[in-house]
Protein 1
Amino acid sequence: MPKPLKQKKQKKSEKAEKENKASLQSPKGMRDILPIEQPLWEKVKKASQDTANFYNFSKIDTPILEKAEVFERGIGVSTDIVEKEMFVLKTKGGDRLVLRPENTAGIVRAYFENGMSHMPQPTKLYYFGPFFRHEQPQAGRYRQFHQYGFEILGGEDDPVYDAQIILAGIRSLEELKIKNLSLQINSVGCRNCRQVYRRKIQEYYRRFSAKICKDCKRRASVNPLRLLDCKNEKCQPIKEDAPATINYLCAPCRSHFREVLEYLDGLNLPYSLNNFLVRGLDYYNRTVFEIFSESYPGALGGGGRYDYLAELLGVKKSELPAVGVSFGVERIVELMKIMDISGLPKPKAKAFLIQIGKPAKKKAFLLIEEFHKAGIKVIESLGRESLRAQLKVADKEEVEMALILGQREVFEESIIIRDMKNGVQETVPLSKVVDEVRKRL
Ligand SMILES: [Zn+2]
Ligand SMILES: [Zn+2]
């Protein structure tokens, strides 16, 4: 019975094909940014770059891989990022490297390694690039994601820098015409006042130790500030009445925070105080904040002051005043789609080059280079043969002129310039076509 055998074989190869396809998909939580989405990305890049230029932030690119210690020491071993979310790899030489989960620690590393601390302070840096966290993918959250950010390092711990970081962040979103922005802000104090607060919140949570979630039980002893980060349903009512950091600030922290708010008031920048905002990383002190849009669930970005990070990394014996902000580009792009904000338009071509027949195609191929040299964008459809098919593309691209090179024109060393609006045609010598097109622009 040869027939069923054949069918079975076919099924087997179909299955293999399916498996093959599955193994050739992008890794979980990582995706392709397709050409259709790129104009939105270009617009975000431009808005962040323009904002950086205006407020005098200089661009920095740090490696995508950093030594694991950079994050273990900087972000803190008891944080979700370091505990569960880092992509760690061991090199053949035995180094433990990490695909960067964020950029602040890497930037502080680069700041000292490249002697930026010896230059006039503060140093203002801007970045845009990919980051990696091994977490459960969900809407707006990917394992490879992109952020841009602004950092001010060195100098004084002047509250004006906190305000400027917040301002630059908000301006970059406004540049994109993102509306209904809101700012939530809090102060988590310094080492001195945080000790007092730690005790207070531990005392408070001790009363509810039977009711809180497993994570919070652990947080209460390891990293009590992070109790306020808990999203677990059953911890919410307890969290609501928890002591607020802001009520336990020492005098210098209180006046620092007041000054930040005064700068924001001066700008007429509305904000709301959020007692639960702590941003769970070890390196934050004093000001922490997050920026939202009414039209998007979840923060578009956030940041804060991180005066202790250099010390935590072991690159400096004392504090390095620093403050920064970062934004999730995927979220911003998603929001632009929701708000119907268009991307950066592609530079328009002025002319469309049409060729009919093989000798014309050869000439056209070379002629494009003449236009390239002259800096005039000309597009073509070299794969198409018929005049009609090519004119159709030219129409769709909304070019002003079509340049038509047929057999006769090749023979006569000429070319037809056709005005796409009124259909008027003119034949000019091929050697003059670049100048003739330029005249018509
Ligand atoms: Zn303090
Ligand atoms: Zn909890």
Protein 2
Amino acid sequence: MSNLVLNQYRKGSGYKDVVGRLYHFPVRYLNAFAELPSAFVYYEPREGGEQIYFGAGKVLSVYEDTEDVGHAYAEIGNYEQFHVPVDFYSKPGSGTWENAKTMRNSVRRISNDLFESILAAGGVVYSNRSAPEAHESVTESLQRELRSFPEPGKRNPFVLRKIRRILESYERPSAVTNWVKKKRGDSCQICGVRGFLKRDGTRYSEVHHLFHLVNDPPAECLSPEYLVVLCANCHRRMHYADVGTLVGVSKGWKVRVDADEILLVTREAA
Ligand SMILES: [Zn+2]
Ligand SMILES: [Zn+2]
């Protein structure tokens, strides 16, 4: 796993960041995210900020920002704010934590030693979490986020748009979609076709979030119950064909697509 520093202002910036959840960055930094998950530490720059490191977490996945060409999002998990912010000049013995020359890059790699020292100075013990826990952590943090918005039925269009944007990110490859694919296998849950074989030996499949069918999504819609594994063709169909409303059944959902009644099994046997 590589270690990164991400420049981030604690009170937002010109970018569409959400501290502890989403990092918005120019695509020229994409290479730094080649190896995922990556552990990162946030740094608030001097210009307009306090020159401190203030939190750490993991970058779980990266996806392009389709509304803003030339930019991308990094999905963040396991975020922890430092108990004590770490001043740039507070490195024991030698002054600054990083070399001033590298500071021009908003996203930069640092050594494992340096990474762990900064976290220790911030009062955070870094733990390498396994995949199932990472799944819990992403789900829980997004759920908390959703709950902080007004109740279903009382949300304004702006809040609904924001919720939908959060949920859209759920279809991108992440700890959650990997978990669902592992659990349900690589066959399409609508037509049963297995995905083609990829160069790495695994099968291709996509994950669809059923929130498209919910007008005012409840916080629970982040659970795997709302996710289905589909082939590329059936996935497009769910987005563009005539799709009815979701009807809950004991095993998952029933939904009409064109003239077909489809059963989607999304409740895993315990
Ligand atoms: Zn299919
Ligand atoms: Zn979809």
